[in-house]
Write a structure and sequence with these properties.
Elements (H helix, E strand, L loop, with lengths): L6 H16 L24 H19 L2 E3 L10 E5 L8 H14 L5 E5 L9 H6 L2 E3 L2 H9 L3 E4 L3 H5 L16 H9 L3 E7 L6 E4 L2 H6 L2 H4 L7 E4 L3 E2 L14 E4 L5 H5 L5 H22 L7
Parallel strand pairs: 1-10, 2-5, 2-6, 3-4, 3-5
Antiparallel strand pairs: 6-10, 7-8, 8-9
Length: about 300
């Protein structure tokens, strides 16, 4: 995009210059600051630590979010599977913690279960705990490794695009057209287990994904971030982007759906657009049903 030499162009040029200077240490993530952090490996998963952490964290989560988890029996107890979830609640995504705790309790802490997450999540204050529960960097090689070793893998295809969607789109599945999870499941011939969550978009008031701001500051290229969210949250009011906030105690409901066998339903050479629309459609049906049950925001 080219801007003129007028006041608007000068203002945008100034904003970009300031952002480059202010975020200099962060804007070199692949050769500077971020690579110094460990992205998480399969070996970081620690069943002993999970058993110690799980009761206390589950108590805190239960008090604050009053979670209701349905359909855990749809997750296979044997063999690999791909759990595909809609993403909610911004940086702190309550369904991540709740589902990790619920699945670890259901399958047992020894059962190999891993989750893919953006590098920023693995550099967050919660990273130490997430690593122990099996969170690793979202990378195709990691995904292939987990499934090839017969483990259960959890992914959130919508990523930062979906997790920062406006609050009034709380009852919408929005992966942004990303179909990589379908190819992954088909390649490894593993079932897709839908995980559908409602309530996370009520933990703050999400106003905008801020895609225009991400492009303006060029972090879409430098940090692989397509959004700089604009939101109202405690204790800030207008919350600084990607800063932890105090979530409102919204009731979180998670429902697991019937496993989907892509090869059985779509054959060896699927029409990915058709498969995408149908899989997302099934998840949307569950989410719409959960929304219909909801009486009041936050209260549930």
């Amino acid at each position: 995009m080219v801007f003129g030499n007028g006041a608007a162009g000068q203002l945008i040029g100034t904003v970009r210059a300031v952002s480059r200077g202010a975020t200099g240490p962060i804007r070199r993530p692949l050769s500077g600051l971020i690579p110094r952090f460990r992205p998480g490996t399969l070996e970081d998963r620690d069943p002993d630590a999970m058993r110690e952490i799980l009761p206390g964290v589950w108590l805190l989560v239960s008090i604050w979010f009053r979670p209701e988890v349905r359909g855990l029996h749809h997750i296979p107890r044997e063999g690999p599977a791909l759990i595909v979830g809609n993403h909610t609640g911004g940086l702190q995504s309550p369904e991540v913690f709740i589902s990790n705790l619920a699945i670890a309790s259901y399958l047992g802490t020894e059962h190999p279960f891993y989750q893919l997450a953006h590098r920023m999540v693995l550099n967050s204050p919660f990273a130490w705990m997430l690593r122990r529960f099996g969170t690793i960097e979202a990378d195709p090689r990691n995904a292939d490794l987990v499934l090839s070793e017969g483990a259960v893998l959890q992914v959130f295809p919508g990523g930062d695009y979906e997790v920062f969607r406006p609050t009034w789109e709380s009852a919408k599945i929005d992966f942004g057209g990303r179909k990589g999870f379908l190819r992954l499941a088909h390649k490894h011939n593993v079932p897709i287990v839908p995980q559908v969550t409602i309530g996370g978009q009520e933990t703050a008031f999400f106003l905008s994904r801020g895609e225009w701001l991400a492009k303006l500051l060029q972090v879409d290229r430098t940090l692989r971030l397509k959004t700089i969210p604009i939101m109202l949250a405690l204790p800030y009011g207008i919350a600084p982007p990607f800063m932890p906030f105090v979530p409102l105690p919204s009731k979180i409901v998670i429902q697991y759906g019937t496993p989907i066998d892509l090869r059985a339903e779509y054959g060896d050479d699927p029409d990915w657009d058709v498969a995408y629309d149908e899989v997302v459609g099934r998840m949307q049906y569950i989410l719409t049903s959960l929304q219909a049950e909801r009486k009041l925001p936050v209260i549930g």
